[in-house]
Design brief:
The chain is an alpha/beta fold. The protein has 11 helices and 13 strands. Strand 8, helix 4 and strand 9 form a beta-alpha-beta unit. The protein is globular, with a radius of gyration of 20 Å.
Length: about 325
């Protein structure tokens, strides 16, 4: 089987620090290669893969700000579509734009919908309902207007994570600094529970950081910058819990799965995919308010960290994800 995996071109695949879609695209590609699929990864030129790499730019537009994002996206997508006949199947991880080619090519396409940036993009997905194969990354993140082939949870390379049963005494916020992700709420939870908080992630909203976060930084609330794989294990593994007080219906939280793979439970606001990722009272706590989060901080001692690891390993591994997609590929090709 010859498969083309289309990754975005904002960041390298896999990313150096931030780039969730690129990370999942990489894990899909490498997981399929281990299953014997002949994979060509369409990504930036500095991307890393055991398969064949196709690229139209050396670096992503978020790492080379001199490039125009839309121009790179058009060149990137068209590069794959003009070579569509070389593949048995195309796996689109690049949102709705590639769908516009799907009636112009004969190669079947499977599209992983990594969340909807807004409801305004749904008409594009809806237009290609009859010809595409849509996969959601959680059952919560589905539009009633679309037909879905399956839900496949994002998978991580479990060997990249280190289990730690002896954490230090701090809470962790791990993600982009943005109101949606609840950075300020994490600080409030830490203050009220009288715990130290480390904040790690890229600053996506500069004003939010300067107005809501930076003034609160002190010896108990520390911002440690963005954290790549080399820092991630230590930060996640040493935390008594990951705070994930999201203010939106998150389609999937990679950091939530990453945390549990280190044995660290998660305290999350009960929105979006969180009930699918977290087993309440077993691998963390689902809460609705800051005060509810504060109440369960003292209950963290009752969580078995090995249970967190076992749950995440069984549900959110690259092997499981790749196997699920491989079966979907076969199902599509048999049609």
């Amino acid at each position: 089987m010859k498969a083309a995996v289309l990754s975005p071109v904002a960041w390298r695949t896999p990313p150096r620090h931030y780039g969730p879609w690129e990370q999942v695209s990489s894990n899909i590609a490498e997981g399929l290669i281990k299953l014997g699929v002949e994979v060509t990864l369409f990504a930036t030129g500095d991307s890393i893969t055991a398969g064949k790499l196709e690229s139209i730019c050396e670096k992503g537009y978020e790492e080379d700000r001199g490039r125009d994002a839309k121009v790179l996206e058009c060149l990137h997508i068209s590069n794959l579509m003009e070579k569509a006949g070389q593949f048995d199947i195309i796996h689109n991880n690049f949102d709705f734009l590639p769908l516009t080619y799907s009636r112009l090519i004969k190669t079947p396409m499977i599209t992983t919908i990594h969340g909807f940036s807004s409801k305004q993009i749904i008409p594009v997905y809806k237009k290609y309902n009859d010809i595409n194969n849509y996969v959601s990354i959680s059952n919560s993140d589905r539009s009633p207007d679309l037909n879905y082939l399956a839900t496949v949870y994002n998978g991580l390379n479990t060997a990249d994570f280190e289990f730690n049963d002896r954490p230090q005494d701090y809470l962790l916020y791990f993600g982009r600094i943005h109101p949606d992700k609840g950075t300020a709420e994490a600080i409030e939870i830490a203050r009220k529970s009288k715990r130290k908080l480390l904040i790690a992630g890229i600053i996506q909203d500069e004003n939010y950081f300067k107005e809501k976060i930076e003034p609160q930084l002190d010896e108990d609330i520390a911002y440690v910058g963005s954290a790549g794989p080399e820092k991630r294990n230590a930060l996640l593994g040493n935390a008594i819990a990951l705070l994930h007080p999201i203010n939106f219906a998150e389609p999937f939280g990679l950091s939530v799965a990453e945390s549990m793979l280190c044995g660290t439970p998660v305290i999350a606001f009960n929105k979006g995919s969180m009930p699918e990722l977290i087993k309440d009272n077993e691998t963390g706590f689902l809460v609705n308010t800051v005060d509810e989060a504060v109440e369960v901080v003292d209950e963290l001692k009752n969580i078995n960290r090995k249970t967190c690891l076992d749950w995440a390993s069984s549900q959110f591994s690259t092997e499981k994800m790749a196997g699920d997609y491989f079966r979907l590929y076969q199902q599509i090709l048999e049609k």
